[in-house]
Each structure stands twice: as C-alpha cells, then as structure tokens.
Design goal:
The complex is a heterotrimer.
Chain A (H helix, E strand, L loop, with lengths): L7 H5 L3 H13 L2 H11 L6 E6 L6 H14 L4 E7 L8 E2 L15 E7 L11 H10 L4 E5 L6 H8 L2 E6 L5 H10 L5 E4 L7 H13 L10 E3 L8 H9 L6 H4 L1 H15 L2 H6 L2 E6 L2 E7 L13 H17 L3 E12 L8 E11 L3 E10 L5 E15 L16
Parallel strand pairs in A: 1-5, 1-6, 2-4, 2-5, 6-7, 7-8
Antiparallel strand pairs in A: 9-10, 10-12, 11-14, 12-13, 13-14
Helix pairs in contact in A: 2-3, 2-5, 3-5, 4-9
Chain B lengths: L7 E5 L8 H12 L3 E4 L6 H11 L3 E6 L7 H10 L6 E6 L3 H9 L4 E3 L5 H19 L4
Parallel strand pairs in B: 1-2, 1-3, 3-4, 4-5
Chain C lengths: L6 H22 L5 E2 L5 E2 L13 H5 L22 E2 L8 H13 L5 E3 L3 H5 L21 H7 L10 E4 L5 H13 L8 E4 L3 H7 L8 H18 L3 E2 L1 E4 L1 H5 L4 H21 L4 H4 L3 E7 L3 H22 L11 E6 L11 H16 L3 E3 L12 H16 L14 H23 L3 H7 L1 H19 L27 H17 L2 H17 L4 H10 L4 H12 L9
Parallel strand pairs in C: 3-11, 4-5, 5-6, 6-7, 8-9, 9-10, 10-11
Antiparallel strand pairs in C: 1-2
Helix pairs in contact in C: 3-5, 5-6, 6-20, 10-12, 10-15, 12-13, 12-15, 13-14, 19-20, 19-21
Classes of the chains: A alpha/beta, B alpha/beta, C alpha/beta.
C-alpha cells in the first residue's frame, strides 16, 4: 500500500477519516481500490444492508431519515450510501440527498456518504457494493443504500442489499404499473410513504391486491405504512427489520451473484434489447426475468402489441437464461403461443426457466404475463444448442466480464 | 468513463446570515463545470461542517459569509486541523474587510472572493485547489 | 376595448404610428428586443394602440375602489404620507433604545425592530459564538430586554413593527411589557414583520428550524390570537422581498408571495376564521429593485390581483378586506460595494418606484448597506431621501401619477399576465406549501438568479462600477464596518445569566410544559402559550427549543 492507503486496522476500528478515504479510493478505481477491496473482503457479513428504492419524490430520504432516528434510538450505528444522479452533459452533480437528512448531520453515530451515479446505468453508483463492504468491515450495524430511484435500480439493489424496501408514495398513477412489473420478485417489503395523504389507502389496497395474485401468497412481502413527519409506522418497520436474519446474504451465493452479473452485462451489451426497451428484472443461474412497456414502436397495424415484439421479449429472457452459465447458447427451435391481445401502455414481464440441460442441448420455457392483472399472455418453449465457447461481453462500465462458469 | 472522481466541493454558511443567492449561483456553476457539490442550508455549525467534510472526503470547502460571519472562520480552520483535515482547502466568499482578509489568509484560508468576483474565476480557482490537494495526496492509481 | 374610437381618427393614428416606426427604424435600425427583469418585452414607445383607457372603470377604477389599481385609499399620500419606518437593530437593548430615540426625534413616525440573527435562528445569546452577536440586529431574549429596548417609548400610541419570524416571541415580549405597563393590548398597533414562514423556507432568510408544517400551524394560531386579543396588530407580513433578493424576478416574487398569501388565507378559513376579519390585517412586504417602471407595474398589478382573490376566491364581502397593503424596502442586492456613494442614486430611484407604486410604508437603505447595518450618517441620508422626494420633488401631490401612461398601463397588464401564469403553475402543483416542499419554487428562483448573474458577467446587464464605468479603488476607502462593542455584549451576557437566575424557575417550567402540551394537542392555540411563557420570563431560546422538540426539526430545502 502507498502512503495514502488507509490502513486496514484503521478501517476496522471505524476510524472515520480512514473509512472516508477508503471510499474515495474505491471511487477513483485505481490500484488502491483493489487493495481496499481485497483487504475488507474477509471482514464483511455482520452489517444489515438495507436497500431503499422507489420513484423520485416518493419520500425515500425522509423515510431513511426516520429509519436512522429509530435505529439510533436503539443504540445502533448507521451508515448511509446516498446516491445522486450526475448530469449526463457536464458530469457534475449536486449531492442533495444527504441534505434532506438534516437532523442527523451532527450525530457521530451516523456516517453518510454521497455518491454520484456518474453515468452508471443501474441507478446506483459503480462502487456502491464495495462502499457497502467498507462500512460493513468498519462495524456499522446497519448500512442503508438509497438509490436514485429511476431506471434499473431495483435490480442493483437486489444484488447489493440483504433487505430490499420499495417505497410507494400515494398517487403514483402510472408508476404503480412499473412497480408491479417485476419488482414483486425483489421487494422484501413495500412501504407506503406519506400515509397521511388521501390516496394512501388506495395505494395500499392496490399493492395488496397485486400481491394476492401471486402464486405463493404465503411468502408475500408485508405492506407497511409510514408517516415520516410524525414517525408513525417507523417503529414497526424497524421492528420488522430487526427480525430479518439475512445478514450478509448478498455475499452468500456467489454462484448466483456471478450469473447475475453476467446476465446484467449481457443485456447491457444487447443492441436489440436497447432498441426495444427491454429491462432486466432478475436473474440467476438458468433463469432470467425481463420486462418491457408496450410503446408505439411495438404496435402493429391493428393498434395492438405486435406478436413479434412479444416473441422478442420472451426470446430475450430465454437467451439470457441459457447463456447465464457462461457458455454461448443459441435458439435452434422455438414455438410461441399467444393467448391474449396486449394494448399499448401495458407492462409485459417474461420469466424464463430452464427445463433441462445437457452438454449440448437445453430446453427452456418462458411465461409472459401482463403486469397489471398478472394475466397470462404467451408461452414460449425453445430448444437451444450449446456451443461450448465462452460468453465474452464487456461489462457496462468497461470492465471485462467474469470468467465463464461450468 | 472517468477513473478519478471529479472535485468534491462543499458550499456552506457557518454564521448567522441567511442570504445565499451568491453561494447558490456558485454551486450551480461548479456543478455545470463538472464538479460534485454539496450545498447546505445556512446556519451550519462548525462541528457539522467538519463531519461533513470528513465523511465526504471533500477537496474544497466554500464558505459564504455576510456581516461578521467570517469572524468565526478561524475556528473552522482550527477544527479542521484538529480533525486531521488540514489538507482540505477553504475559500471564503462575501463581505470581508481588508484587515479581516489578512487574518483569514493567515489562518490558512486559501482565497477570499469579494462581491462582484467573476464566476469563471471562482470555478478556475476551485478546480486548481482541488487538483493541488489531490497532487499532494499522491496519485492513487 | 369597449368604446370604439371614431374611424377617421383611428386611421390617422395608425398612419402616424407607422410613420413614427419608419422614422425610428431609419435612425436606430432594428435593435434586439429589450426585456425587463421579469422577461416582458419593452418597446421603445407606447401609444394608444397599446392602451387606450376605455376600460378605465373595470381595469383601473379610482383610488380606494375595487380593483384598487390606482391605490388602496381614496386620498393616498394626500391624506397621509407613507410611514417612514427605518429598520433599526444593533447591539444590546440599550443601544437600540438610544437609536430609537434619535430616529423619533428626526421624524420617523413608526418603529421597527430587527433582532440579532441568533434570535432568528432560535437561540439565546449564551448558546452561540459571541463574535456573531448583535451585528445585524438587537439581541432580545426575554421580556426584560424588550422593556429596556422600548424604555420611554409610548407603545400604546406608536406603531411598532417587529421583525419577528416564528414563533413570534418578540410580539409576545412586547405584549408582556404592555401588561407590565398597564397598556391594554387593544392599543398595541404594529406588524409582525417577515412572519411568513414559507418565504423564509424558500429564500433561507432566517427559517427558524422547525418542521415546515409545524411553522404552518404556529402562523395560523398567531393570526387567530391577534385577531381576538390584539385587534390593532397585523399578524401577518407576507414577504416577497426575500425571494426577489434571492434572485426571483419581480413577477415571480409577486406571484410567489400571492401564492403564499393564498395558503395562509385558506388555512385561516379552514380554521374557522372570517375572511372579513383577518384579511384586512394581512400585510405584504416587497423588495423594490432599481427597475423603476417594472416595479410600479408589479405593485399596481399586485393590487388588482389581490383584490380579485379576496373578493372571489376567499369570499370576503367588505371592501376593506380587499385592500393590498404593503411595505417596500429598497433592494440591497442592487447596491454595490464598488463606489458605494453611487448607492444613494440607486436608493433614490428605488424609493421613487415604491412611491409611484403606492406603498403604505417605506424603508430606504443606507448607502453602506452592502457592508453592514447602516452607520448613523448613512441612516440619516436614507431618511432625508424620503423627505426630499416628498417635500421637495412633490412626488405625493398627485395620486398614482403614472396612471394612464400608455407604457405603465400596458406594462401593468403584462406583468399581471406573467404573475397569474405563475400562480396557475403553483396551484397546479398543489399550492405553495407543496411546491416548496418539492423544491419547485426554489428551482425557479435559482434559475433566475443564475441567469441574471450570467448576464452581468457577460456584460448584458450593466452594473455601474462593477462591470462598466469602473475605477481603480483603494479598499482603504471603504467605510469601516461598525462592529458592536464587545464589552457591552459581555455585560449583556452577564445580565442574561442574572435574569435566568432571578426568575421563578417553577413558573418557567410550568409555562413551558403548557406550551409543549398545546403543541401536542393539535387544537390548542400554541401562540397563546408562547405569550404566557413570555410573561412567565421564559427566554426566546427556551420557547424555541420546546417547540422544536414537539413540532419537529426542519431546515429549508435548498435546491441548486
């Protein structure tokens, strides 16, 4: 380590200056970053990492501020990673998120670090996972990661957090559809913020009815109401957080983690996906979930969603699932059956699973549902040929992808 | 995709004045110049600013001052030193009489800007100060 | 336009106009269109084509009649001049008291008190760095301080304006003093200046750091209390000055102010108050920039819009409720550090704009305003300026003298359109409270400030002595800042400590507990308990801390 690398002991002792400089090193992404990553890797797994995602203006910061107050009241130390968007034109940013957590600015038991997204596509900032690890190693009891709240942040939060909170302010309108479109798999709890507003009950009802349509309602995430200005609901929310046991689970299953990374890189490198507006919702080895919102570019001459677009979405999910093992696979035979017409504006979610796989062949099935009412839209079944060559896509931030897995 | 993070600047007010038109304009210009800016409400206490600078590993702190707010800037400089943050550059903008300006510079303030200072000059100065701090820290790559 | 001008005359007029336009173009070419600060395009000439006075009754009216465009009183300054209310505030209560006595001797007809910034922030003098005390205002932390500050001042006969943001402890202290002196509260007149919590939240001027919704409640309670118990008091001064100083254009400042007023009025109506009772006690406070005609038009349009809002949106029936009363202060942000004596000319122009705009009370800045609170000499010149305009230039002999000017009437109409468009925007966002919680207003103001600064830097907007007509100046030429006497501050702190030791701790605790209970109750009048606490000798800092605990901490939302 050079003179500027904060010593590991200092980080582990929770020395704030050392922690801050370690985070800067991660942001700068030079040699020091690798050193920091390697050094803290053995000391992670104790902190409870809570991801908070939701639309802009939804009250995330106020909620986080309320969570901090509760946690501090119970004697816990809290670290916050607050992500703000960078301007795509100038590269500059105003890091205004932490300013909304005003009452904690002087509390020594709270460490807030702002990260600018800097063009990173996932709704977080590229070093976010590593930064969380530094806080974990430094001994913070809870690490809260607050996203920018747009784009694919749900996916990133899924990777980075042990517990994922999705904040739904009342009166969302259209955004509720987006939340339904795939985020069900990700949320560990839904929080209806600003619950004193008149629309709050309706939002809560919509969420509950959406959840009731799921295949296994027993495993449903809770829907909690909060009024951050009065603190109502926050005690219950933190009680619920305390009994969650999944600390460090984000590191547990590295196999799925690697597959997720690969699938994420793959879709980011896929020109056709970009063209049609496909978004990755979830991925693991052998499965992938992709969503799209039906827009003008998907519509046929009868004013409904083009069958080809539905096929493409299903095929995307299939392609990602069968390539998630790290070996190139391609569809050689596929059959789609479409049961219901789809209107512009609908959100479609395609979920691919692996039915069987041998050395050279694989069979996959994809179900396409409509987000709003979980109606079944189409099924695609396909056979893929496994080439044996490794998948090599560049990661969205320019780093080479991980080595293939078998 | 840049590897090194852009200059990180805190724009804040530590005295009792609440006028922040000038500092807000500066903050917007710094953002438009590609920097990462934390812009606080007025009336921040010195320990709060020190904590903020430490957690964010700021390169430059810009203090906006009116009336006699600048009189407590030396306290900020002491607090930064005590916290091991003497390498963070501090600039002051606002109404500062000449004799007080000497006191501030002696206390370690890097530059005092007066009303009417051109925005470009402020941006250039901040960039230079951030670069100087990074250079002193040594290349991290 | 109702009454048609006779055909032949109209044709002549058009021909003459066309002739003039050609002659103008031949000489001046086609210059770039000019715009005022609010963005309204300004032509080189206005004529009956732009405004012809045929809608006089509807759009102008006579002074003292709906829609009050020409003035809220039939007599305006012929009946009574505007109040010369010069801001005073420096040092300790005794310093304030001597300055007040000087000002009264010089002819000031009303008093204003501006407290130390530490008071604005919600703290007592012994809780803050001593270097910062008393520099921008007088330190007043309890009823004893107020008693000393107003020693020898006939508070039952003189109007006092307290610069007094939430929770209005200065008024509480004055009421406590009145009780001590046997002056009935019904004789206390004046204004809670700058009592507009939204304005402080947006433009960061002294927002006292409780949650915005908590401040909202205190404002309504304060209005209700004053309406009942201090009927001669104007509890609400809704402020456009902060926002304009922060960079809002004149149209934006007027619009945002009216939007805040709408929220306050609607909150009061929702609390069961009668608009015909509280509206006549709403006052406004505006910045007056050096853009003279724009300011005149802004004020005339404001009067017209407010009258309509009161009559139609709030349902007030008494014409007295529809009157737009405002105090104007010449704008400090137009003043420069360079060549400071030039500021006298600027302040004169701004004062003229206010007078032509029909204000009810005027504060003229000292030329050294950019440096600190004014020196005695600068304060004297500021008052003399008003006297000269009134008594030598005779600006007040005619009511609304610019009325009927083709330019001023057209500009009034155009400013009204701009203002109403912004009001619609804020309404669409759910009202001013929602708009500021989202940062919408702050963003608009910030954008205007940045645009203006860029124009100045690029030379598009002249500032004499700064970007044009500059001279080399020796900084030693600047007038020395007047710092308050540190020894007097130290003595003050000792007296504060003695005061806290000598009062009944039991009474204070009881009063503060009642204050906390009122805040929790959601229905009791919080301000009534603030007054009771003041009478029990609780300090400003103690009252604020109690409210902050109960109603929540809050800071302005600053958006870049």
């Amino acid at each position: 380590m050079n003179a500027e690398t904060p010593p590991l002991e200092a980080i582990l002792a929770g020395d704030r200056r050392a922690v801050a400089r370690a985070i800067t090193a991660l942001e700068n992404d030079g040699n020091t970053a690798h050193t920091v990553r390697a050094a803290v890797a053995a000391h992670v797994g104790r902190a409870h990492v809570v991801g908070v995602t939701g639309p802009p203006g939804g009250g995330k910061s106020t909620l986080v501020s309320g969570l901090i107050k509760q946690l501090r009241g119970r004697g816990h130390t809290v670290a916050v990673v607050a992500v703000d968007p960078s301007s795509p034109f100038t590269g500059g940013a105003v890091l205004g998120d932490r300013i909304r957590m005003g009452e904690h600015q002087a509390d020594e038991g709270v460490f807030i670090r702002s990260l600018a997204s800097r063009g990173h596509l996932g709704g977080l900032a590229r070093p976010a996972t590593d930064v969380v690890d530094v806080f974990d190693a430094a001994g913070y009891h809870t690490v809260i990661v607050e996203t920018v709240g747009a784009g694919q942040s749900e996916v990133e939060v899924a990777r980075i957090a042990d517990t994922r909170l999705v904040v739904c302010p009342p009166g969302l309108g259209d955004d509720v559809q987006a939340i339904k479109a795939g985020v069900l798999e990700i949320a560990d709890a839904f929080v209806v913020s600003k619950a004193d507003l008149p629309d709050a009950q309706r939002t809560e009802n919509e969420l509950l009815s959406m959840l009731s349509l799921r295949r296994s309602p027993a495993a449903n995430p809770p829907v909690l109401r909060t009024i951050a200005t009065t603190g109502e609901g926050l005690r219950e929310l933190v009680d619920w957080l305390e009994q969650r046991t999944q600390r460090g689970s984000r590191h547990a299953s590295t196999e799925h983690q690697a597959a997720r990374d690969l699938v994420g890189s793959s879709i980011a490198a896929d020109g056709y996906a970009r063209h049609l507006g496909f978004e990755l919702v979830a991925a693991a080895r052998g499965t992938a979930t992709v969503r799209m919102r039906v827009g003008p570019q998907h519509v046929n001459f009868n004013g409904r969603c083009h069958g080809g677009a539905i096929f493409s979405l299903a095929d995307m999910a299939l392609g990602l699932a069968c390539n998630s093992h790290g070996t190139i696979a391609a569809l050689i035979d596929g059959n789609i059956s479409i049961s219901t017409g789809v209107e512009p504006g609908d959100w479609l979610v395609a979920h691919a699973i692996e039915v069987s796989r041998s050395r050279k062949l694989g069979v996959y099935r994809v179900d396409v549902n409509r987000a709003g009412d979980q109606a079944h839209i189409a099924s695609l079944s396909g056979t893929v040929y496994i080439t044996g060559k490794p998948v090599t896509v560049a990661a969205p931030d320019g780093r080479p992808s991980l080595a293939p897995l078998n | 995709m840049q590897l090194e993070r852009p200059p990180k600047v805190i724009i804040t007010k530590i005295g009792f004045d609440g006028h922040d038109r000038g500092s807000r304009v500066i903050a917007a210009c710094l953002r438009d110049a590609g920097m990462e800016v934390i812009y606080t409400p007025p009336w921040q206490e010195i320990p709060t600013v020190v904590k903020l600078a430490m957690e964010e590993d700021a390169d430059v702190i810009g203090i906006s001052s009116l009336a006699t707010d600048h009189l407590i800037v030396p306290r900020l400089m002491d607090a930064l030193r005590d916290a091991g943050l003497a390498d963070i550059q501090v600039i002051v903008g606002g109404i500062v009489p000449a004799k007080d300006e000497k006191v501030l510079l002696a206390a370690g303030v890097a530059h005092v800007f007066h009303p009417g200072a051109a925005l470009d000059d402020v941006v250039t100065a901040v960039r230079a100060l951030a670069a100087a701090r990074r250079a002193r820290q040594g290349a991290s790559a | 336009m109702n009454k048609p001008v006779p055909q032949i005359a109209a044709a002549d007029l058009s021909l003459a106009q066309a002739r003039w336009e050609r002659a103008f173009a031949a000489d001046a070419g086609q210059p770039e269109p000019l715009r005022n600060r609010s963005g309204v395009e300004i032509k080189p000439l206005y004529s009956p084509h732009d405004w012809s006075g045929t809608a006089y009754a509807d759009s102008l009216g006579f002074p003292g009649e709906y829609p009050y465009t020409r003035g809220i009183y039939p007599t305006m300054y012929r009946g009574r001049s505007w109040s010369q209310r010069q801001l005073i505030g420096l040092g300790v209560p005794e310093d304030y008291n001597s300055r007040v006595k000087e000002m009264l001797a010089l002819g000031a007809s009303a008093l204003s008190l501006i407290p130390c910034n530490s008071v604005f922030r919600g703290y007592d003098a012994d809780e803050v760095p001593p270097e910062l005390l008393g520099t921008c205002g007088t330190v007043i932390n309890h009823v004893g301080d107020m008693d000393r500050a107003l020693d020898g001042v006939p508070i039952g006969d003189l109007s006092t304006a307290m610069n007094d943001p939430s929770p209005f402890t200065l008024l509480a202290f004055e009421l406590a003093v009145a009780k001590r002196r046997g002056v009935p509260w019904t004789r206390i007149t004046g204004t809670s200046n700058q009592s507009d919590c939204i304005s402080h939240f947006v433009a960061n001027h002294m927002f006292f750091r409780i949650a915005l919704q908590g401040a909202r409640r205190i404002v309504v309670d304060h209005v209700a209390f004053a309406n009942e118990q201090v009927p001669g008091w104007n509890p609400l001064s809704i402020v456009g000055q902060h926002m304009q100083q922060a960079g809002a254009t004149p149209a934006e400042a007027m619009a945002f102010t009216l939007c805040s007023a709408i929220q306050y009025a609607e909150d009061c109506i929702a609390a069961g108050m009668d608009p015909d009772r509280f509206l006549s006690r709403f006052t406004f406070f505006f910045d007056i920039s050096v853009s003279l005609f724009e300011e005149v038009a802004k004020f005339r349009a404001g009067r017209r819009i407010w009258a309509k809002l009161c009559r139609e949106r709030f349902g007030a029936k008494n014409p007295r409720s529809w009157r737009f009363k405002f105090h104007g202060q010449t704008s400090g942000v137009d003043l420069t550090r360079q060549q400071p004596l030039n500021n006298i000319a600027r302040v004169t122009t701004q004062a003229m704009a206010g007078i032509f705009g029909g204000l009810q009370s005027l504060h003229t800045d000292g030329y050294d305003e950019v440096f600190s609170t004014p020196t005695a000499e600068a304060a004297r010149i500021a008052v003399a300026t008003q006297n000269i305009l009134r008594e030598e230039a005779h600006l007040t002999d005619v009511i609304d003298p610019l009325g009927g000017s083709y330019y001023v009437e057209s500009l009034t109409d155009e400013m009204q359109q701009k203002i109403e468009a912004i009001i619609d925007l804020i309404d669409a966002a759910g009202g001013m409270y929602k708009a500021v919680e989202q940062g919408l207003v702050q963003k608009m103001i910030g954008d205007s400030a940045l645009a203006f600064q860029k124009r100045v830097d690029a030379g598009g907007e002249t500032v004499v002595g700064v970007n044009k007509y500059t001279v080399e100046e020796d900084s030693a030429d600047y007038p020395a800042l007047e710092y308050p006497d540190r020894t007097r501050m130290d003595e003050y702190l000792i007296r504060l400590k003695a005061f806290k030791a000598e009062r009944s701790a039991v009474a204070v605790d009881k009063a503060l507990a009642a204050l906390a209970a009122a805040a929790q109750s959601k229905r009791d009048n919080v301000f009534a308990q603030v007054v009771a606490s003041a009478e029990a000798c609780a300090t400003h800092g103690e009252i604020c801390a109690t409210l902050r605990r109960e109603l929540g901490f809050g800071q302005p939302l600053t958006i870049v």
